[in-house]
Design brief:
Rossmann fold
Length: 286
């Protein structure tokens, strides 16, 4: 088994394990992250009748809002590596009566779609977990029609995203001799450097690459720190994976430590955890 295959297997196991959490928290997630999806649709100029490819679609975002925007004369193909995530997306699409959305289990680095067949390609918080994100971006470029646009969202620096960096830092404190991941290694912050993200898109062939930043409140507002930490452990696969390796006693201790750190940052009632994401976008010239 190659290094890339091993990394992909770990990613598959990690995200399969949290698929039920994504189903439980879908309403909260969609509401708190809607601005990111809408900006991606806007900068990729998705409109009525368009064909859209959504890579690493997970539970259907932004494939579902894309399908609503393109209307019955358009078509959206959503892909993801994890079938259990797509099961949730299919349930949501069926409830909305979206007949113009197809959801496929696909290794996003091995996309097999006709070249020059889509008006837009989207990828929200997916490429940073891929062993070979450059290959995925090249596939996205090939899938676009001349003049088509691509939008990719990746999380900014850890300091701008305490919703993830704070629990991750505390969890790692309790892993003896845990080395810091090398810069650019697959993970939540693989594309924290916007210059790297822009360079990768340009290298894949995209022209006029621009990067916008979008502030988010991850999950919105929570009643207390414990509710937020449960939410993160239900959803953030890389954090949940590390936490799950602890003994029950240590899990309780680490959980309480994260709650205390989260609540210490709050100035008023309830808990909000800020975040910042990049949305990079570029065009395939004809």
């Amino acid at each position: 088994m190659s290094h890339d295959d091993s990394a992909k297997n770990r990613q598959h196991e990690t995200w399969t394990s949290v698929a039920d959490g994504w189903r439980r928290h879908d309403d909260r997630l969609r509401a708190s992250m809607a601005a990111v999806s809408e900006l991606m649709l806007d900068v990729s100029c998705v409109g009525l009748g368009h064909r859209v490819l959504d890579i690493a679609s997970g539970t259907g975002e932004p494939a579902i809002p894309a399908a609503q925007r393109v209307g019955p004369t358009g078509r959206v193909v959503g892909t993801d590596f994890v079938e259990q995530m797509l099961v949730v997306a299919r349930e949501k699409a069926a409830m909305l009566g979206l007949d113009n959305l197809e959801l496929r289990q696909v290794d996003c680095e091995a996309l097999d779609v006709p070249p020059s067949s889509f008006d837009a390609v989207l990828c929200r918080w997916g490429i940073m977990f891929m062993p070979d994100p450059a290959l995925c971006l090249r596939r996205a470029y090939e899938a676009l029609k001349p003049g088509g646009r691509c939008a990719v969202a990746c999380w900014a620096a850890p300091g701008k995203n305490p919703w993830a960096s704070l629990p991750l830092e505390i969890v790692r404190r309790h892993i003896p001799d845990a080395p810091a991941p090398p810069a650019g290694a697959p993970g939540i912050f693989a594309f924290a450097d916007p210059d790297r993200l822009a360079a990768e898109m340009a290298s894949a062939g995209f022209s006029d690459v621009q990067i916008d930043q979008v502030p988010v409140l991850c999950g919105g507002k929570f009643e207390d720190g414990a509710a937020f930490v449960r939410f993160i452990l239900d959803l953030a696969g890389p954090i949940a994976d590390l936490f799950g390796k602890f003994s029950p006693k240590l899990q309780t201790h680490v959980f309480d430590e994260v709650v205390a750190e989260v609540e210490a940052r709050q100035a008023g009632a309830g808990v909000v955890m800020p975040g910042l994401t990049w949305v990079a976008h570029g065009q395939k010239l004809g």
